[in-house]
Specification:
single chain; alpha+beta
């Protein structure tokens, strides 16, 4: 009996010893099999990125009531009625970080601190100058709807040598003072070469688009930046662009503008332009910058006017299409 109890006790001690040994060692799988590595609870964690104590850049959790009241909530943006659906009649190029304003819609690139695209809709009546609208009263200001980590600021542009170039031009939004003031938000700006571009060829293109309302009933415009590759001395293509300011605001290599014009007999014409962000000879005609629309889609990663009825598109860059 005593011998039996001794054997039971011995087995228990062996089992207990094994359990204790298991708590201070950890079996790790390696590339070639298994190995026993001591694990005493003192290992350092080595994450791929630093670990911070907060997630202050994350979007806050908000109630359904707050979502309903949020002027930027997607249900409002994608709703069936209102000015936004009028502007976006032919579809959204993308749905990333949408911002809706009273007279234009914007998709914001938080990494580049520049919009992916800006969408506008014009008619002759909407572009008529109003005595009560004064552009000189407007000031460039930060867009507080964007997290402070991802905004551009006036300080970023100061001393950079670049203009704060409008994507949705102030001259396109003349119905009210509020409309024109909203075009001065920095989310609607991109660094542009001033002399010969922003105050030259690009300005000419903006004025050309406004003049289209004298011929067409509705004009829809999408504008945005491009970062295009260039072949270097080693024969390889690279995408290189400058950044400015403490927030590293990206300086686009080019800008695009794609326009849909609606005729009074319900047909559609399209024009597409790409301009390099540099000084351009004032004698260069605008049609020299016209490109096939699909080249802009490939370069930007955006799909334009995907809700458009192709059978109604009868002209692209002044040439008849094969859709009809």
């Amino acid at each position: 009996m005593i011998s039996k109890m001794f054997r039971i006790g011995t087995c228990s001690l062996i089992g207990l010893g094994g359990w204790i040994a298991g708590t201070v060692t950890e079996r790790h799988k390696t590339t070639y099999g298994f190995s026993f590595i001591p694990s005493l609870g003192h290992e350092k964690h080595l994450p791929g990125l630093p670990i911070f104590g907060t997630v202050s850049a994350a979007a806050p959790i908000i109630s359904n009531k707050e979502v309903a009241e949020d002027p930027f909530n997607p249900q409002e943006k994608l709703g069936p009625s209102g000015r936004v659906s009028e502007i976006m009649k032919f579809g959204f190029p993308s749905l990333s970080n949408l911002r809706t304003f009273d007279d234009y819609v914007l998709s914001y690139d938080t990494r580049a601190r520049v919009a992916y695209w800006v969408f506008e809709h014009f008619t002759a009546d909407r572009l008529k100058p109003k005595d009560q609208v004064n552009r000189s009263l407007c000031n460039f200001s930060e867009d507080e709807s964007i997290h402070k980590y991802f905004r551009s600021t006036n300080a970023d542009y100061k001393g950079s040598g670049f203009d704060r170039g409008h994507l949705a031009a102030a001259g396109n939004h003349r119905l009210s003072q509020k409309h024109v003031e909203q075009t001065f938000l920095l989310s609607n700006m991109a660094p542009q070469v001033g002399e010969g571009f922003n105050r030259g060829a690009w300005n000419q293109l903006e004025r050309h688009v406004r003049k289209l309302t004298k011929t067409y009933s509705n004009v829809y415009v999408c504008t945005g930046p491009l970062y295009l590759p260039r072949k270097e001395s080693d024969g390889k293509n690279y995408v290189k662009y400058q950044v400015i300011g403490a927030n590293h605001v990206a300086v686009p290599t080019h800008f695009f503008k794609i326009v849909i014009m609606e005729t009074y007999d319900d047909h559609l014409h399209m024009e597409a332009y790409v301009m390099p962000n540099k000084e351009i000879d004032e004698r260069t005609p605008l049609f020299a910058f016209q490109v096939p629309p699909d080249t802009v889609e490939r370069a930007s990663g955006l799909l334009f006017f995907d809700r458009m009825n192709r059978s109604k598109l009868v002209q692209i860059n002044g040439r008849k299409t094969t859709y009809v």
